[in-house]
Every structure is written in C-alpha cells, then in structure tokens.
Write a structure and sequence with these properties.
The protein has about 1000 residues and is of the alpha+beta class. Among the domains are: about 85-145, no CATH class; about 460-615, Cupredoxins -  blue copper proteins (Immunoglobulin-like), CATH 2.60.40.420; about 730-885, no CATH class. Helix content is about 20%, strand content about 25%. Strand 36 and strand 37 form a beta hairpin. Helix 9 (about 730-745) packs across helix 15 and helix 10 (about 750-755) runs antiparallel to helix 12. The radius of gyration is 30 Å and the shape is globular. GO terms for molecular function: copper ion binding; oxidoreductase activity. It holds the Pfam family Cu-oxidase_2. This is Spore coat protein A. Keywords: Capsid protein, Virion.
Length: about 1000
C-alpha cells in the first residue's frame, strides 16, 4: 500500500482481532473475558496501525513463569510412515493389456473397476493427452489410495477424495512413490517439567511406528481435548502388507515440531495435509472441543522451505485451507535443472497463511523435511560406493552420522503467562502456563523462554561419538549466534587469552564442524567459532562427543537482542557475563552464563554402547557455477517502513499484483537493499537458492566464506580461501603436497628423509647464501636447523602450529636476503611440506596417515572426495596441514580476534536467506528452472511479512518476462491467455475437470 496509508479493510480486520480473539495477549483456558487494563492497552495500540507514531510499547513486560533449566528431556519428533508406496515396477506396462489382466507378473493387477475409475473420472481431453503407460500407473495409484482409504475408514478416519494428477505441474514426470497424510491439530504439550502437561500447542499428527521413539521422552501429549476425534492416545492402525510396505502397526502421533520427513532424491512423494484445527467461535467453556490457542488463525497453508517445488505445492500465502479442508502437496524431489550440485539436504515446512504466518508458526506449525541422495541409478541398480554421497546410512557414501545420531533442532523463543493472571513464585504450576502472543507488535516478537524442539532449555543425553545436528532458527523474530562450551573453564595463557586446546583436550569454547548452510552442503567442512542464524536460516554441524566422555557441554546463544527490530550488536561472553535474570530458578552447579543464555545441555555418557561407524568427509560437492551469460535481467528490491506497514519498493503486498515476471530457464541478478537504519530483515525468496556476489558493494568470492557480515564494514582485501576446489590446478597442488608428506613419512629415519624429500632446497645447495652471524650459512643448514627445532616443539596441536608459523616466517626472512621471489616461493613450499610432515608424524593417527597414502597412490583413483575422518581430531589436524601448506584456510576462527565476532559461520556463499542489517545491501545470482507459476519473496521476520513486507513474482514462459508490476488477472487472461497458473481445487468445491461434480468420489 503506497502513500503511507492502510486500507480500511485491513484496519478493520486487525481491530476485529480484539473481539474475535485472533490477536490475544493472554491465553484464557476457560474463555474468560479480558481484564479492562488489557483491553485499554490493546485499544491504545490501534493508534500505531495508522500513520507512524513511533513503536508501540511492549506488552510483553511480564516475564514467563520460572523454570529450572536443563531438567526437561530433549524431544525428537518421529519419522512419519507413508500410508502406502507405489514404486515404478509395481504397475503394468500397458493400460489396454491390463484390462485383460494379461500381465500376470505385475505385483498389482488392475480390474475393470480400477480402469473405470480412471476413464470415468478424467475428461476426454485428459484421456487423449495422457499416455497409456501413465493411465495404467494412475489406475494402480488410485487403486492403492482406495485400498488405504477403505482400511482407514475402519478406525473412523476419512482420507478424502482421490488425488488429482492434473492439479500439479509435471505430475507424470515425477510419479508419486510414497503417499503421506498429516493432520493439523491442537493438543496439550509439556514445554517444561515445571509447566506440566496442559500447556496448549498446535502441531502436526501423522502415522508413526507404534513403538515409542526412543528419543520422544513421552512427550506425545494428551489428546482428549482435540478437535480431531480419531486422534486418541495409542490410536493404532494395522497397515496390511498389500499396500506396498511392510505390515505393521502404526499410530497417530501429534507433536510440535511435526514429524521429520526423510525423503530421497529420485523418489517423489505426495503429502496430504488436513486442517483439523478447532474452528473460531467455539471458545465457550461448555463447548466440548473448545479452542485453546486464540491468537492464531485456524486457516493454514504449508510451505516447504526452500524446496524446488511447483507453485501449487509451494504453500503460497493465498492457497489456504480452513478447518475440514485439505491440500495435496506434490514434491518431485529432484534438483533444479537436474544439476546434482543443486541438491539440498535440510529443509523445513511451516505455515505461511497470509497475515497470520507469525502467529501460526509461533503456535507450533512447523517441522523438518530432510532430503538424502540417491542410492540407485535410473535403472534401479545400486550405485558404486565411490559415488554415493549423503545417503543417510553410516558406513556408506559420506557416512555422516545417521539414524538417532542425525538430530533436528528447531529454535523458538516463546513467552508464557498464568491463565488466571496470578504470578506464582515456585514451580511446578497449577494450572499450566499458556503461550502468549502480542498481535499488535509490528516490530517483531521476542520471547524470554528459549526452546529447542518446543522444549524450554532441554537436557540431551548423548553417547561419546559423532552426531549430526540440523539447527534451524524457527523465529518468529529473534536472531541467534550459537557457541558451544565445555563445563570446565580453560586456564589463561601468558597473553591473557584462553587456550583453545589446553593439554591436548578441548576446554572452554570449542569449535563447530560446519558441513551445510541453508540446506546447501559446503564444498568442504569448516571449523567455526559460532553459528549466526537469522530467522529461517539452517546450519548442519557435526559434534564429536568422543572427546568429552563423562562431561557436560552447553550450546549457548551469545547474541543480544532486546526487541523485534534485530540484534543490538552486543555479545555475551562467558568470562565477563553478569547475571541479571530473576525469572529462572537456580540450577545447582550451573553457571549463570549457561543458565540464562543456554539453549541445550549435553550430558555425555562415559561408554560407547556400539562402535561409531560414521565418518566425516574432507570434501562434499562444488557449488553450482555462476554463468553471467544466463542473466536476462537485474532487479533492485528496497525494504522499508511506511505508514505503519512494511514495504518492498514502496508497496505493500497485493496477491493480485505480479511485481516481477521472470522468464523460465533464465538467471537474474537481484540486489536487496535495507533502507531502514533501525531494523534487520532476513529476506527469503521461494523456489530457488542464490549465490552471493556482493555485500555493500564489496565483491564476495565464491570460494570464501563470508563470516563477518555482521560487522559495519568489510575491508576490500582478498580473504584466505575457505573452500577446496575439486579439480584443476588446485587439486594437483594438494596431491603434490600430500605425496611429498607421504614420502617424507615412510622412512624409518623420518627427520633425515624430510630433508631428502625437499628437492627445491637441494637445488639451492649449489648456491651461496648471505653470511650472517645469527643465521645458518647454507640452505642445507637452514633446513637441518628447522628439523632440529621441530623435534623440540612442545604442547598440543595448536601450540606447535604456532611455533611452526614462527619458524616459517623466520626462514622466509632469511631467504629474502638473497633470492628472487620465484626461488623463495619454490623453496618455501618445500619447507611447508617438511613442517606438515612433521605435524602429521606427531599428531596423525594410523588411519589418517593411511588416508593420505591412499590419496596419492597412483594405482588407485582415490580423490579428495574419498578422504574420510574418523574423529574431529583427525579433521582438525588436516585443517592445520592445509593451512601450513598454504592451500586453504578451513578454520574461520583463525582470521582475527574472536571478541570482535569473527569466526562466525553465516551460511556460506549459497543461501536462501539474505541477512539485511540496517543500511545494508546484498547482490546475488539466481536461476529459475523447470516450472511456471506464482511465488513470493518476503522478510522472514514473519511479523514483518504479516504486515505486508512481501511481493509476488511469477515464473513465466520465455519471451514474456517483465519489470513493471502487472495485475495477475489481466496478465493471464489477456497478455498470456494460454498459460494459466495451476490451481488445486478446494476439496469441497468442483474442480476444473469437465465431468466433475460436487459429490464425493465413489471409490
């Protein structure tokens, strides 16, 4: 909306929130009337919804009821079971043959009723335009659906109508192999042991294995007050083996986060999401299934962030369903443009309802969707082990931690209140505190209770082995910077700074091993001091607890943020932290720093029940290349505040206005600019990732991690290379260096052999060096002195690395007196190889030395991609070796003073969320492939999104792109009359098929 005005309709809509309970500021379990002081507060806030008069005062001034940190067990959602499977080999080859049941070898036989279901359901045009093979597949798919629906009806669950294949783009190109169903429900939940079991929550119910998940800690809570009647505790369904999956008993389990999908590339799925939330206006205490969460809207649409998905399955803010309706989401699970480098790993789904995204996600509507790589080729044959990647199985492919050791974590900050308005001082509480949401705060919502998977500061028992954590900032408005600490405090060293690796063991603040950002694997793993996460950003890390058996570790948020506008720029530090929080019950033996800033406590067991088969690769896969010849347009998007609402290019969101027409199979360059000087905006555009080109006008190198984005400026300096390129001269340099290390390490007399394997140094023995009383007389003496000194180096890996760097600088200084830059570079590379070999000899394991040997063995085609580490210690040693060799800087902590914030991981060059701090701008390269249709870009501080900081953009056929906003109805009816975006019909309405009726399908 331009000119600083808000539409009367929107103002009236927000005013109605006071009486309809859509923006409630207190959770009233019994449906009581609001206190007069709260009414007065809310009425006064309406002034801030017109012309800007400053920011409203926070209504969230009362702290949540007290808790005891790290007493409630960690919660891990279940993995949902598909209702049925229908894989390609199960259906007949020809539709006409199947009518006579001639294909007796088929695993599913089609009867005349199955054929009639297709011929009577589809229009003549659809029958004529669909191949016989696809018609046969559809007949079998619908047969499986019908069998499953009939079985579910035995426990009073109506699965609904047949899925409509023509409501989805390229449906037959990516035939559904697994069909899931989920129900959006309201239920009681245990946020904390002190809060009891009756805090209400929204989430997703799905069928999971009947046996309790070993990590759920009994927190699939009570359902007696749910609107969805079949969702009773221990409700089970016996799935027969005839539906293409093993026969088993599964049960409906509701949770928030919702169940974690484990999908695989090359295996398309369909997810039917059913809105079973309680309706508005059933709040009365006498109503059996009255609504408990009153600030959210039981009208939903689920977005799979940031899947490469057609628009009709994207969860567009305007494709909502109301209570009793459902929507089918078809996920092709293939990379953009079929480019394997475009694959993603960690995605998440969340509600995206226009104007109510913040409230609905805050209520609990989100969960993880993880994607693993293929294990078979297109013909169904098993892939060779050498080319398998992230397959989700320990000991195969990359071998990353999997199963119970692959742990999703969604971070939310929440606020709670006592339903009766009284402030009890001592937990446990009766009745349970309830969620509070301030619907009149347009800056952003900040809660004082930090939750992980909807549990307040949980404690997680872990084994002394490697884990993969997929960490997500679920919002709605808080930014995080996460660090991880041991309970032990490091001793100070001579310079006053804590020792990173005292006595060979990590003590104090320890590094993360970062493997992915925003779902994108980095070209190689990295060491980072901290993880900086704007709303919706994700980071996959590996933590090796084998170094901390019997100890406690804490994951801590060190970023200060006092309101929804964004981070203050201050950090909390353990050694200077001063406790100010009076809202927590003291936890025995826990530092105030952990008690007040901690997110989760890890209690590491003393023994390992079974061997750790997981591994950590050195290299993953390259980023997609940036090809500027693909660029068709450049666009500027300016984010600002106007007239009480958030704007993009001076406009508020209008679902019928297309702000950009993007041509299919092209690329564009977008610049996102924050015109505000007080707010931070995490900007997300659906459908595709981007490669960062510039930040504040400073070029960003694709193979350098941009980890200082939160600073006020970025020096125009070439940063150390943070990634290993997997081909070309760079690869040869690694091979040559490691081969020299290998040869230097094979002789019994290692130190003498180090010198003998330095041919560049031997060349210079024929020359004379400049005499100096305090320096060796020849290069031979210089190298011999290096080896002698190295024998005397003391301390742990990092301490000896420091001594090695000093030695390298000393030798280079000597050489500068006599030799040309070319000669010096050649000699110094040999010196670096010698030092690296010394470090490998001192600190390397037999396994790591074997990996180095195997890599350079010319008889084997063993590349960088096949190097595997069995522990974090091995990886840290390789980081040191690559740094000494001058090949790459994989330790982000090594580039300056961590007190200033350096050493952060910000997501890497390829992301789907751009962090715009005040007065910042980011320029990026983006591609749009494979589909047409509508999508959106918005601020993922979802409070800003709900107050109109969003635009619509459409992928249109080649030659029809445009820059000036157009009305969607005119564009598609006049300018593009034959290309209409796909629309999935609501289940209670007639669809666009010629012979459809309003009646339910006769299965």
């Amino acid at each position: 909306m331009s000119n600083g005005r808000m539409s009367n309709g929107r103002r009236e809509f927000l005013k109605q929130g006071v009486t309809a309970g859509l923006c409630g500021t207190t959770a009233l379990v019994q449906g009581e009337d609001l206190h007069q002081e709260v009414r007065d507060e809310m009425a006064g806030r309406l002034n801030f919804l017109s012309a800007p008069q400053g920011s409203p005062p926070s209504i969230l001034v009362s702290p949540s009821p007290k808790v005891r940190p790290f007493t409630t067990p960690f919660f891990t959602p279940c993995v949902p079971e598909p209702l049925f499977a229908f894989v390609p080999e199960e259906y007949p080859l020809r539709f006409e043959i199947s009518q006579h049941n001639a294909n007796t070898n088929a695993r599913i036989l089609l009867t005349k009723a199955d054929i009639d279901r297709v011929t009577l359901r589809l229009s003549r045009q659809q029958l004529e335009s669909t191949s016989e093979l696809n018609l046969a597949w559809l007949a079998g798919f619908w047969k499986r659906f019908t069998e499953t629906a009939t079985s579910l009806a035995n426990i009073d669950i109506d699965l609904g109508d047949l899925p409509d294949p023509f409501a989805h783009q390229r449906f037959f190109d990516f035939k559904t192999q697994y069909f899931y169903a989920m129900w959006e429900v309201e239920f009681a939940w245990r946020f904390d042991e002190c809060y009891g079991k009756d805090s209400y929550n929204w989430g997703f119910a799905s069928f999971c294995k009947a046996a309790d998940h070993p990590k759920d800690n009994g927190n699939y809570a009570s359902y007696q007050d749910c609107q969805f009647e079949p969702l009773r505790k221990n409700q089970q369904w016996k799935r027969d083996a005839s539906v293409g999956l093993p026969a088993m008993k599964v049960r409906l389990q509701a949770s928030s986060p919702g169940p974690t999908f484990q999908a695989r590339y090359g295996q398309p799925v369909m997810v039917r999401r059913v809105n079973s939330l309680p309706e508005i206006l059933n709040d009365a205490a006498s109503y059996k299934n009255r609504r408990r969460i009153k600030f959210a809207l039981p009208s939903t649409t689920t977005h799979l962030h940031n899947a490469h998905t057609a628009s009709e399955s994207d969860g567009n803010p305007n494709d909502w369903i109301n209570t009793g309706e459902y929507w089918d989401h078809h996920y092709g699970n293939f990379p953009s443009g079929y480019d394997p480098n475009e694959k993603l790993s960690t995605l998440w789904y969340h509600d995206h309802r226009m104007d109510f995204t913040a409230a609905n996600v805050y209520a609990g509507l989100d969960g993880f969707y993880t994607l693993f790589d293929e294990t078979t080729d297109d013909a169904g044959a098993d892939l060779d082990e050498s080319i398998k990647q992230d397959v989700g199985v320990e000991g195969e492919g990359w071998g990353l931690p999997a199963g119970d050791y692959d742990v999703p974590m969604i971070l939310h900050d929440l606020l709670f209140a006592h339903p009766d308005g009284e402030k009890e001082e001592t937990p446990p509480y009766d009745p349970s505190p309830q969620l509070v949401f301030d619907g009149f705060n347009t800056d952003g919502i900040i809660g004082d209770r930090l939750t992980v998977n909807r549990i307040i500061q949980p404690v997680m028992k872990v084994e002394p082995r490697k884990y993969r954590f997929r960490i997500l900032n679920g919002g709605p408005s808080r930014f995080y910077e996460l660090t991880i600490h041991t309970e032990s405090v490091p001793a100070k060293v001579s310079d006053g700074k804590p020792d990173r690796d005292a006595n060979g063991d990590l003590i104090g603040e320890i590094p993360f091993i970062v493997i992915a950002g925003d779902g994108n694997f980095q070209p190689n793993a990295l060491l980072a001091r901290s993880l900086y996460l704007g709303v919706a950003q994700r980071c996959d890390v590996v933590i090796d607890f084998s170094e901390f058996a019997g100890q406690n570790l804490y994951m801590v948020n060190v970023l200060d943020q006092i309101n929804g506008r964004g981070p203050s720029g201050r950090e909390y530090h353990r050694d200077t932290f001063v406790s100010t929080d009076i809202s927590c019950q003291p936890a025995d033996g826990v530092e105030p720093f952990f008690q007040e800033q901690g997110m989760v406590k890890f209690e590491v067991g003393k023994t390992l029940p079974a061997p750790d088969k997981s591994t950590l690769p050195l290299a993953f896969r390259s980023f997609p290349p940036v090809d500027l010849t693909e660029v068709r347009r450049e666009r500027l998007w300016e984010f600002d505040f106007d007239g009480g609402l958030w704007t993009v290019n001076g406009l508020t969101y209008d679902p019928n206005r297309i702000d950009a027409g993007i041509e299919q199979d092209t690329a564009e360059i977008w610049t996102m600019r924050n015109n505000g000087n007080s707010w931070s905006h995490p900007i997300h555009s659906h459908f595709t990732e981007f490669i960062v080109l510039e930040i504040n006008g400073v070029p960003q190198y694709q193979y350098t991690v941009q980890e200082s984005e939160v600073q006020n400026s970025i020096p125009f300096l070439k940063k150390p290379r943070s990634f290993i390129q997997l081909d070309g001269q760079f690869r040869d340099q690694i091979r040559d260096s490691l081969e020299a290390i290998k040869k230097s390490s094979e002789s019994e007399n290692k130190m003498q052999n180090l010198y003998e394997q330095a041919p560049a140094a031997r060349e210079f023995l024929k020359r004379k060096t400049r005499a100096a009383s305090d320096q060796p007389q020849t290069l031979e003496q210089l190298l011999q002195r290096l080896i002698t000194n190295a024998e005397q180096w003391k301390g742990n890996l990092y301490q000896q690395e420091t001594q090695a760097v000093v030695e390298i600088q000393r030798i280079e200084t000597v050489l500068l007196r006599s030799y040309s830059p070319e000669d010096i570079a050649k000699t110094m590379q040999q010196v670096r190889v010698v030092i690296a070999a010394i470090m490998l000899s001192k600190f390397g394991t037999d396994h790591l030395r074997g990996q180095v040997k195997h890599f350079v063995d010319e008889e084997n085609e063993f590349g960088i991609e096949q190097i595997r580490f069995q522990s974090a210690k091995e990886f840290r040693l390789m980081v040191v070796l690559l740094r000494i060799l001058g090949i790459a800087e994989l330790d982000l902590r090594n580039n300056g003073d961590s007190i200033k914030g350096e050493g952060r991981f910000m997501g890497g060059p390829r992301r789907d969320v751009a962090i715009l701090l005040p007065d910042w701008e980011v320029t990026m390269f983006m591609r749009w492939k494979d589909f047409l249709g509508k999508h959106v870009m918005h601020c993922h501080n979802v409070v800003h999104e709900d107050h109109a900081m969003m635009i619509r953009w459409d992928i249109v056929p080649p030659g029809h792109g445009f820059d000036t906003p157009k009305r969607a109805d005119r564009f598609y009816s006049v300018e593009l009359p034959h290309e209409v975006p796909h629309v999935q019909p609501m289940p209670e309405h007639a669809s666009s098929h010629e012979n459809d009726s309003d009646q339910a399908l006769d299965r």
